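so my prof wants the structure for this chain in the tokens format not the other one, which i didnt know existed until like an hour ago. anyway here's the sequence
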Amino acid sequence: MSERGERTTDTPGPLGRADRVDPATEAFVAHRNLLFTVAYEMLGSAADAEDVLQETWLRWVDVDLDTVREKRAYLVRIVTRRALDRLRALGRRKESYVGPWLPEPLLTAPDVAEDVELADSVSMAMLLVLETLQPIERAVFVLREVFDLDYDEIAEAVDKSPSAVRQLAYRARAHVAARRPRGTGSPAEHRAALQAFQRAVETGELQSLLDILAPDVVALSDGGGIKHALLRPIVGADNVARMLAVGWWKRDAERSVELVQINGGPGLLVRVNGEIDGVVAVRVENGYVTGTYHVRNPEKLSRIDQQTAVTR
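here's what i got, hopefully its the right format
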């Protein structure tokens, strides 16, 4: 399946004119972007989310649709169970990951930012908060708080009783509330802050960087052991400004920085000698940059040159 729910050769099943689409394919295509978003928010990896969708499709085509009351709920149940299995395996992989692990960034359409709750739920900052939850708590939180499923639906998806799901949801909400970023400001203020940040990065002018960075700004980067990246977070405006001024803008290559939407929020696409070198998602609060998330691992940049559809 393609980003926009179009059939490709690696997903089985017919797709042509409307009168030739079988019911299973039609339902899957109709809900594909939603299913991708559920899987991505649970996993923080677009590549793994696509694998989960393929597994979901293979399970879905074997279902007797006459026994399915609500196709959307049934598909969400399948994708949740597959994502939970994948999430537990990812946890083991991350234990041996070289350097800090950041979610795989997505290039998103401008209208994603207009849905504040959706944009917040797929933001790099929120995905990192969700990483601190247990897998079952993460699934419950995503299904309840982001997609507004009722407790009975979630209970079926995670094989728990509704009362157990309520307890899991309560714990997850409290955990996330204590750690989630509390951004304020209008989209226009965010754009202005990002443009100022872009100019400061391009010039490497230290004072310009200090003017736009919050005192407690945190910088993270992910090279996956393939590209040079920070081995630990850098905290504080002075430290982050100096790192950006001397470490980002080396003069031995032709670099360009483009304003883009990353995971529903402001970001920069960095090219070196015309090739994509990395992306930086930027968290803005009250007109200041409070967090930067620099992904350089090429394995996480394979789809950054095209928009990915996310929806609720």
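also thought this was worth mentioning. The beta strands are 213-222, 234-235, 255-262, 265-272, 275-285, 288-295.
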